[in-house]
Design a protein that fits this description.
This protein is of the alpha+beta class. It has a domain at 2-189: Ribosomal Protein S5, domain 2. Helix content is 40%, strand content 22%. It is built from ten helices and 13 strands. The chain has helices at residues 79-94, 117-132, 139-154, 161-168, 212-229, 241-247, 253-277, 281-297, 304-314, 342-357, and strands at 11-20, 32-33, 35-48, 54-59, 64-69, 101-107, 173-178, 184-188, 194-200, 319-324, 332-338, 362-366, 373-374. Strands 5-4-6-3-1-13 form a six-stranded mixed sheet, with helices on one face. Strand 7 (173-178) and strand 8 (184-188) form a beta hairpin. The chain is globular, with a radius of gyration of 21 Å. The two termini are 24 Å apart. The mean pLDDT is 96. Bound molecules: 2-deoxy-2-fluoro-alpha-D-galactopyranose. Pfam families: GalKase_gal_bdg, GHMP_kinases_C, GHMP_kinases_N. Residues 5-44 form the Galactokinase N-terminal domain. Residues 82-169 form the GHMP kinase N-terminal domain.
């Protein structure tokens, strides 16, 4: 792209991916989540280009880019462009202060791996433009407009967790976020002598075209049925096991399973927060395994590859717990592994996975890190 020859960035932003320790699919059910940003990130370099409305965006990592005009923003056929366009559209609904800019991206955050490269893209752009053009948006506004951009331009009816984690995370902590009130608490995470190891199945999912929106609808259907007996409940977050059981005869078994997972998963998040505060690592590990069982058997957003890796970890006494993290259908499993056995575990898992699926596993340690910031 022509602008690259004279590109002189005046602002650099780093926007992280995230893991979710526990609390999957609870965010759009107004429940609890426990995510944190990780060191893997997208770096954004920006310059104003003097134009009123002409903008250039280029990804160095994927050697691809596009031009756009702020006066004619519309959805694109190219999926990743919609994350950018969606955010620009949302910003334009709030302010007319954005002018022509050039942006270059570099990423070490694998896409489609359940680590939320999409939120990193949305939030990094929002954060950068907020600074570059002095838009005056608060962190929460950037989180919310990025989430809306994903609904309107990408088509995934996602919850708020990924964008919230990308912007609001704090190094060494997980965020206990109440997705209804948006109140949150930073919980220090000290797993010593254990580490968080991600195993990337390399099986990719596409949330928009996958079952994500269907899961959301199934949960809403469950809520409507429970409301017949309990008109005051607003979401699955307000539902107890007893309430759910009472409505079971009126529910399709799939809808019951989905609701049952969410009700239990919300409880697990609060139990995990307690386990972390008390440094009860054994309970923390067991909660991960219980969560994965629900993800796989009740919510049915796992896959053979993720299930294999979680089962594999169960045979290893140096792993306290494991589960698939993120939206589902592949991506990464999160494993709590003793620091002395990390290499042995990764070697054994890589060998077994290669034998089973003929795929070369990617494995790396992650540490809870800070949110979107200046570089
Ligand atoms: C995806 C979504 F974007 C999040 O909002 C969340 O629902 C997650 O899947 C599942 O917990 O990452």
């Amino acid at each position: 792209m022509e602008f690259l020859t004279t590109f002189t960035p005046e602002l650099t932003i780093t926007s992280p991916g995230r893991i979710n320790l526990i609390g999957e699919h609870t965010d759009y059910n107004m429940g609890y989540v426990l995510p944190t940003a990780i060191e893997k990130k997208i770096i954004f370099k920006f310059q104003k280009n003097g134009s009123d409305s002409a903008c250039n965006v280029y990804s160095e990592t994927y050697d691809t880019g596009f031009q756009l005009d702020l006066n004619t923003i519309a959805r694109s056929e190219v999926e990743w462009e919609n994350y950018i366009l969606g955010v620009l559209n949302e910003i334009s609904l709030r302010t007319d202060k954005v002018r022509g800019f050039d942006c270059v991206l570099q990423s070490d955050l694998p896409t489609g791996s359940g680590l939320s490269s999409s939120a990193a893209l949305e939030c990094g752009l929002a954060f950068g433009l907020n600074e570059l053009f002095d838009l005056g948006l608060s962190n929460l506004e950037m989180v919310q407009l990025s989430q809306t951009a994903e609904h309107t331009y990408v088509g995934t009816q996602c919850g708020i967790m990924d964008q919230f984690a990308s912007v609001m995370s704090k190094s060494g902590h997980v965020i206990l976020l109440d997705c209804e009130s948006l109140e949150y608490d930073y919980i220090p995470i000290d797993l010593h002598p254990y580490r968080i190891i991600l195993l990337n199945t390399k099986v990719s999912h596409n949330l928009a075209s996958s079952e994500y929106n269907t899961r959301r609808r199934e949960c809403e259907e469950g809520v409507k049925i429970i409301q017949r007996k309990h008109p005051k409940i607003k979401s699955l977050r307000d539902v107890t096991e007893e309430m759910l059981d009472a409505s079971k005869p009126e529910m399709d078994s799939t809808v019951f399973n989905r609701c049952s997972f969410i009700v239990a998963e919300n409880k697990r998040v609060l139990e995990m927060a307690k386990a972390l505060r008390e440094k009860d690592l054994i309970s923390a590990g067991q909660l991960l395994y219980a969560a994965h069982h629900g993800i796989s058997k009740l919510y049915e957003v796992s896959c053979a590859e993720s299930d294999f890796l979680v089962e594999f970890s169960k045979d290893n006494p140096d792993v306290l717990g494991a589960r698939q993290t993120g939206g589902g259908f592949g991506g990464c499993t999160l494993n709590i592994v003793h620091e002395d056995e990390v290499d042995t575990f990764i070697t054994a898992a890589t060998k077994a996975y290669k034998k089973e699926f003929d795929i070369s596993l990617e494995a790396f340690e992650v540490k809870p890190s800070g949110g979107t910031s200046f570089f």
